[in-house]
Sequence to fold (304 residues):
Amino acid sequence: MTEHTIAVAGAAGHLGLKVVTALKARGAKVVALTRPGSAPQKLAPLEAAGATVVPVDLTRVDEVARACEGASCVVSTLLGLREVMVDAQTVLVDGAVKAGVPRFIPSDYALDFSQLAPGENRNLDFHREFLHVLGTKSIAWTSILNGAFMELLLGQAPYILFKRHRVLYWQNADQVLDFTTMDDVAAFTAAAAMDPQAPRVLKVVGERTTPRQLAALMSELTGRPFTLTWVGNVFTLGLMIRAMRALMPATSDPFPPWQGMQYSHNMFSNRGNLVDPLDNARYPDLKWTPLHEVLSKHLKTLGA
Ligand SMILES: NC(=O)c1ccc[n+]([C@@H]2O[C@H](COP(=O)([O-])OP(=O)(O)OC[C@H]3O[C@@H](n4cnc5c(N)ncnc54)[C@H](OP(=O)(O)O)[C@@H]3O)[C@@H](O)[C@H]2O)c1
Fold:
């Protein structure tokens, strides 16, 4: 069996640590690239997972190249605005190329942004911009698309109102939406990082559901009826996003409220959802966590 060394940038982040853990479970050696000066409590879980932690300044190509020497793939799980998603990731890929690393996985893990027009999703514009940069580099790459993280349904994406027994939706209660848990995305990313044949785009979805199905599932899991509540059409949502964007001061937060609304717009307008065929079966050992499992676990923590 070939031994893989995989370098993970953004390793101390939410997805980064999960990718590191999944890579170790698949038997890879892992170099966890972290920000210089990161707090010890951020590094301890990486060391406990068995990774070699290497602080790297992502403005310095030489430093990145030294850290990535001998790796068969560099995985990025960075998150930020343009200076991270385009500038720092460009330094990261330049360092990988300089070290002779053959493969790169950019920090996408998103809806399908290939069909979106510039401005439809500010954050995903940075992802698309970076893929253009990546296309000019001498390295093979694989972009992983997985819809929305399923965990967002537990709070950040305001579709399920757990205490008010409602499911909110835009436009159409039968709109199909794509969700995948972070653990499943991390496991798939680890497998793809160790797969020299992986193509340029891999698409996975843990579970597809609609607002109507979500309401039925919540009713079944709680034993109380969940009501579907229409909040508007996507045209109105688009106007609200424009108004909020104009009124809110600029911020370095990658997820101001209007940004979350842009993701909702992409999903409920069906423009960012993943089109078949999916690659869920590419690594047969992987299982996909169903929505009912994530929701029932959450309901237990709420004491429902
Ligand atoms: N599909 C979805 O629903 C969904 C939802 C959320 C996120 N995502 C995607 O998942 C990916 C990872 O997100 P996440 O939630 O894991 O983000 P996160 O927890 O914020 O982690 C991002 C990591 O990037 C590092 N980082 C940021 N700027 C850096 C810089 N200039 N130099 C070095 N390191 C830097 C951070 O370092 P520190 O630890 O030092 O701060 C952190 O470790 C992103 O591509 C994001 O778009 C997808």
